Amino acid sequence: MKPIYSSAKEAVANIQDGATLMVGGFGLVGIPEQLILALVEKNVKELTVISNNCGVDEWGLGLLLKNKQIKKMIGSYVGENKEFERQVLSGEIEVELTPQGTLAEKIRAGGAGIPAFFTPAGVGTIVAEGKEIREFGGKEYVLEESLRADFALVRAAKADKFGNLIYNKTAQNFNPMMAAAGRFTIAEVEEIVETGDLDPAMIHTPSIYVQGLLQADQEKRIERLTLSSGGSNPAG
Amino acid sequence: MGEVNVRERIARRAEKEIEDGDYVNLGIGMPTLVANYISANKTVVLQSENGLLGIGPYPTKDKVDPDLINAGKETVTSIPGSAYFNSAESFAMIRGEHVDVAILGGMEVSEKGDLANWMIPGKMIKGMGGAMDLVHGAKKIIIIMDHVAKDGSAKIKKECSLPLTGKGVVHKIITERALIDVTPTGLELKEVFDGFTIQDIIDSTEATLIVKDVIEGVN
């Protein structure tokens, strides 16, 4: 059994200034909406945030950014956020842009006890500057170090009271790796069911990675609503 | 040629590089348009790096699911036979050379197949997303872009002037004017599209082109 918080405020109570946080999601999909709002309210500062994106100007991590709570951002794509660009260009925020696959693997490795790994992504670019390059089978690879965090804030569709998690569709994204890489993982979920009600074969994140649960309704804001004009071709 | 026609011509030609049964990743922007032209005679599975294999059409209003998007953050559907997975798994299939073709946009491509498509120093800071991983993983990397920049300057150059996305990673370049293969000996002009001459292509390309077996007047 894992603690089930009565509010998002209670869930983030132990997160202090200067903490390193992993925050799940791709764009606005699969972000822990209420935990982010609670961090804005708590007004913790000097945060290092590891997340693929940094929200949009008025939602998700964009709210923390607007409130100047982020000292350093580690992510792969921040193009949806004008305030981010402004803070980077003015030197108010430190940013470490990382290839998306490298970011995912850094987090996966961190949770799996692997301190570093070699990847081809970024070889011959500014991403590889100052890092060890080694050749395997005639091809060059760059050494990348793994990531861990004080807290991981993830979002899932369902949890049981043990803390097993199931994600919905593309809301899975970075959440499972972050759950494992966080020293203390808080899962914000749409529904908490009784232990035993989830099919063990369908679990995405086993309960061992989860330290606390919050049930919270999600707004699920849509960044780009694109509708079909009736054709049957795939949408890229 | 109007903007729409340019994009359509490029997308249609790029589609011909996709074979029946291929797993394909389409980049954001013009590459996404290629999906509109995939022949009904081919079974093609599109990979979206945010964790979906088997992108379907855009949804009708009643089928919109905010938890289901493509890498461009657009609402999509998934096809029968599709699979969802996490980002580490997604890039394992990309880096592990399981994706047959990646079609990406480009700002500059060099004579050696270097690609720059993610950053203009001092101007925009958006990030590379999955591009740096994709260019090393997919079996075939096709860059589709306008042949020249808006000011008329060459985008296919001897050396890229912008920060690189990957070094020696491009296999093929398709523009509204020509199709060019990146070979171990250099850039080989293979096709010149209707409305342009071989000389037009040479004049609008800074990199040296190998011109031997060129098909002209391709529509």
Report on this model:
The complex is a heterodimer of chains A (236) and B (219). With 236 residues, chain A is of the alpha/beta class. Chain A has a single domain (4-215), classed as Glutaconate Coenzyme A-transferase, CATH 3.40.1080. Helices cover 20% and strands 27% of the residues of chain A. Chain A contains 6 helices and 11 strands. In chain A, the strands form 2 sheets. In chain A, strands 1, 2, 3, 4, 8, 9, 10 and 11 form an 8-stranded mixed β-sheet that branches. Chain A has a 3-stranded antiparallel β-sheet with strand order 5-7-6. In chain A, helix 5 packs across helix 6 (175-181). The N and C termini of chain A lie far apart (42 Å). The model of chain A has no long low-confidence stretch (mean pLDDT 96). Chain B has a single domain (3-218), classed as 3-Layer(aba) Sandwich (Glutaconate Coenzyme A-transferase). Chain B has 219 residues and is α/β, with parallel strands linked by helices. In chain B, strand 10 and strand 11 (178-183) form a beta hairpin. Chain B has helices spanning 3-15, 30-33, 87-95, 131-137, 198-203; strands at 23-26, 45-48, 52-55, 78-84, 101-105, 108-110, 115-116, 140-144, 156-157, 172-174, 178-183, 186-193, 209-210, 215-218. Chain B contains 5 helices and 14 strands. The longest helix of chain B is centred in the N-terminal third of the chain and has 13 residues, at 3-15. Classes of the chains: A alpha/beta (236), B alpha/beta (219).
Strand/helix succession of chain A: HEHEHEHEHEEEEEHEE
What is the strand content of chain B? 25-35%
CATH superfamily membership of chain A: Glutaconate Coenzyme A-transferase
Distance between the termini of chain A: 42 Å
Indicate the CATH topology of chain B.
Glutaconate Coenzyme A-transferase
What is the helix tally of chain A? 6
Quaternary state reads heterodimer
CATH fold type of chain A: Glutaconate Coenzyme A-transferase
Gyration radius of chain B, rounded: 17 Å
Main β-sheet description of chain A: 8 strands, mixed
Separate helix tally of chain B = 5
